[in-house]
Write a structure and sequence with these properties.
Blueprint: H1 13-39, H2 42-45, H3 47-52, H4 56-91, H5 95-101, H6 104-128, H7 134-164, H8 167-184, H9 190-214, H10 217-237, H11 250-253, H12 263-272, H13 275-291, H14 296-302
Helix pairs in contact: 1-7, 4-5, 4-6, 4-7, 6-7, 8-9, 8-10, 9-10, 9-13, 10-13, 10-14, 13-14
Length: about 300
């Protein structure tokens, strides 16, 4: 039976962050509609008239203040992310930093903060020469929307970062990437897919080794289960992989777990089509040797 990486499955980080974002957006919208409705705001009664009669000086002040707020939010987000990522990398594996930087959500959210700040600066310059023109007013409206999105994204993004950097979440993501790379090996360049799988196995073993050194045996056991789950998923995909997948390419022959093997051993691995199984079992053997002294439950799980 395929092992579970953890006994307590969590929601995906992005899904939880999106739910938090939607909850905050709905609450903010409801409160704004309530306060605007009570005050009889023109924007609700006649949005076109409100847009046409927008005061340039008031809009310019609002845009300038928004630029300062978003820049401060961006600074807070970068500071928190840098500290948390560095702590996680120091505790478990330096590979966590690379995995985090490859996540598209980080680029999208931090890019949103940066683009909003730049837009606020340019919108304020436009308003100084706008003279009631429609273009500056449209820019003000777009800037308001982006500022709102940026502020609403802050809390869900911090929540996403903490959830993403959970060791269990990292192991699950690496294992999922490894299986996806194996699946893509049937349609993409084989050597590139092999290199991605080898790197993923090394990353899981590195996180598990760091967990053993820190005494986090449950995380180490999750790493062991993650490596074994890759074998189970790989077995289900082997029939669909091309024959070239089982060949010993430069990516495999130069890997740390194969470079010391003799040519006869490499030929046997290639003939038996077991290079990935050999890689994973050598990593498990290394973990078992590390665990025999003080983490016997992890060693027992491997055995």
């Amino acid at each position: 039976m395929r092992p579970q990486i953890t006994r307590y499955p969590e929601k995906p980080p992005l899904k939880s962050a999106l739910l938090t974002f939607l909850s905050l957006a709905f609450t903010a919208l409801a409160l704004w509609l309530m306060t605007a409705g009570i005050g009889g705001a023109m924007i609700l009664q006649n949005p076109a008239a409100w847009f046409a009669g927008l005061d340039d000086n008031g809009a310019l002040d609002a845009v300038g203040n928004a630029a300062e707020v978003v820049a401060a939010v961006l600074a807070i987000a970068i500071t928190v992310v840098a500290i948390v990522v560095e702590l996680a990398a120091n505790r478990y594996s330096h590979l966590i930093t690379r995995l985090f930087m490859r996540e598209p959500v980080n680029t999208v959210v931090l890019g949103l903060f940066l683009v909003t700040t730049i837009l606020c600066v340019w919108a304020s310059v436009t308003f100084t020469q706008g003279d009631g023109a429609p273009a500056p007013h449209a820019g003000f409206l777009i800037t308001l929307i982006l500022v709102t999105l940026s502020l609403l994204c802050l809390l869900p993004y911090i929540f996403f970062v903490f959830t993403f950097l959970s060791p269990i979440s990292v192991i699950e993501r690496i294992c999922r990437n490894a299986v996806n790379a194996i699946d893509n090996g049937s349609v993409s360049k084989v050597e590139s897919a092999q290199r991605m799988v080898l790197a993923a196995v090394d990353e899981v073993q590195d996180v598990s080794r760091g967990a053993v050194e820190q005494g986090d045996r449950s995380i180490a056991m999750s790493g062991v289960n993650g490596l074994i789950s890759i074998i189970y998923d790989y077995a289900a995909l082997k029939s669909a992989l091309p024959e070239s997948w089982y060949g010993i390419t430069d990516a495999i022959s130069r890997d740390a777990d194969f470079i010391a093997l003799t040519s006869d051993a490499m030929a046997e691995v290639e003939a038996d089509r077991l290079w990935l199984e050999t890689k994973i079992f050598r990593q498990l053997n290394s973990l078992m040797s590390q665990c025999t002294g003080g983490a016997r439950d992890v060693a027992n799980l491997i055995g």
